[in-house]
Amino acid sequence: MTRWRIVVLVSMVGLPVLFLLGVGSYHLWATGWLFYAWWPMAGSLALAYFLAWRWQRRKKLLPRAETPPLHWTDRDHAAWKLVEARAAAMEKVDPDRFAESQFFFDIAHEMALELARFYTPNADDPFGPLTLPEILAVVELAAHDMSELVGQYLPAGHILTINDWKRARQAADWYRRASNVYWATAAVLNPVQTALRYAATKFGLTAQFDRIQANVILWFVTTYVERTGNYLIELNSGRLKVGATRYLQLRERHTIPRTPPAEPTPAAPDESVRQVTLTLMGQVKAGKSSTINGLLGERQAVTDVLPATAEVKRYSVQPADIPSKLVLLDTVGYGHTGPREDQLRETENAAQQSDLILLVLHARNPARKADVEALDRLSEWFAGRPELKMPPVLLVQTHIDLLTPAMEWQPPYDWLEPKRLKEQSIHRALDAAREQFAGRAIGAVPVCAAEGRVYGFEEWLLPALAENLDRAHAVALVRTLRAEADANKVGRVIDQLRAAGKQAAKIFWQSAGK
Ligand SMILES: Nc1nc2c(ncn2[C@@H]2O[C@H](COP(=O)(O)OP(=O)(O)O)[C@@H](O)[C@H]2O)c(=O)[nH]1
Ligand SMILES: [Mg+2]
Question: How far is 250 from 493, CA to CA, in rounded Å?
Fold first, then answer.
C-alpha cells in the first residue's frame, strides 16, 4: 500500500471522529452540560498527569537493568562500574544522535576498548588476544537480549522504523500545533474556562508526554550500553571462548529454576544434569566422612561412589529438596599430627575445583588455627586468579551431641531460640565459630553425624545448602566456562590436525596410486 492510500484511509476513519468531537463539544456547550462534563474529564487527566509524573520519577515505565549476574567476580564488578558510568552519561547526549547508526557503533567500539584496557592494562593491542568466535558471541548475545527486551517492553517496538524514530520528536511538535488549533476554537466558544483549562493542560500532560517519549528513547540507548557492556565483560573474563550457544547452554544449566520440577531429576550420568561440586574440608577426624554419610542418608534419591584420587573420594547424591545433583568430595584433612604435603595438595586441589566448601568443625575442639590457615591459603590461590570465583564456605559443626550436658541426647534442639542447656551450648558453639571465621564463611549449621544419632541434616544442613545453591552455581558457571574453553583449545586443534592429516594421506595415496 502506498502512502497516499494510507492517508486516505486514516482521514476517512478520522474525519467522523473529529466531526463527533466537534459536534459533541458544541452540544455540551449549547446545552450547558459542558460545565458538569468538564470535571470528570479534568479528573481523569489530572490522574493521568499524576501517574505519569510518578512513574517517570521512579523510572517505573520501563525496566531498569537487572542487578549484575551472581557469577561475576570482583574484577567484573569493578568493570561494570565503567559500563554504568557510560550508561548514565547517555542522558547528556544530544537525542538527535540516537537516530544515527554510527553512534551505536562508536559507543560499542569505545566501550570494547575501555573494557579490554581495564582487563589487560599492559597489552599493546587490547584486542590482540581475542578470537573471532568470542567477538561474534558478544554481538550475537547482546543483539538477542536487545531484541527480546524491545519486543517485551517497547509498545509497538516491532513495527517501529528508523523513520518513526526520527519523526518521534517532530510528532511532538505536530501534536502541539494541532492542539493549539483546538484550543483556539474552544476559546472563541468559551474564553474564560478555556483559558483555565488550557493552562492546566499546557503545563501538565503535554510536558509529561514529551518526557515519556524522551525516556523511551533514552531507555533504549541505556539498555544497549548495558547489554553490550555485560557481554564485553563476559568476553574479557574469557567466558565466551566456548561460543554463544555453549555459553547459553551452561548458563541455563547453572540457573536454578524458579519452580522446582514435580519429581527430582534422576542423577543419570547424563551430561545435561544440573550439578554442583562440594568439597568437605577440615581437620582429621572432624567428622567429614560421617557428614558425607549423613548427606547420603537412605532418604536421598540416588547415591553412588565414584573413583577419584587415592586421597579424595567422590560421591554423588540427589537430595529430595534440592533441585541440583550434589557431587561430594571427601578429603583426608589436616591437623597438627598432619597428613603429608601431597595429601594436603590433593585437598587444596579438590577445593579449587569445587563450587561450595563445607568446612567441617569438631564442636568440642576449639583449635581452629589449621582451618583458618587452610582457608587463607585457598583465598590466596583465588586472589591470584581474578578470572575465577572462590567457592563460598559453609561451616558445619559436628559432634554437637558431645556438648554439655554431654549425657543428654534428646533432639530436636531449637538452638536458634535456646531454652534448654544443650540448646544454649549449641548456640554458643556456633556463635564462636562464626566469630572465628568472620568474613570467611557465609553461615554455620550444627549436625550430629554419629551413627545412630544422625541429626541436623534435614533440619539445618540441607536447607542451608538449598539457600546457597545459586551462589554455588554461580561459581560452577565461571569454573566450567573457563575449564571448557581451555579443554576445547587443545581438543579442537587436535581435531583440526587430524582432519588435515587425513586429507594429506588421501592426497598421498591418490598420487601414489597413479
Ligand atoms: N559423637 C559423635 N561422633 C562423631 C560425629 N561425627 C563423627 N563422629 C565420629 O568421629 C570419628 C571421626 O569421624 P570421620 O567422619 O571419620 O572424620 P574425618 O576424618 O573428618 O572423615 C568417627 O569415629 C565418627 O564416628 C558426631 O557428630 N558425634
Ligand atoms: Mg574421612
Answer: 22
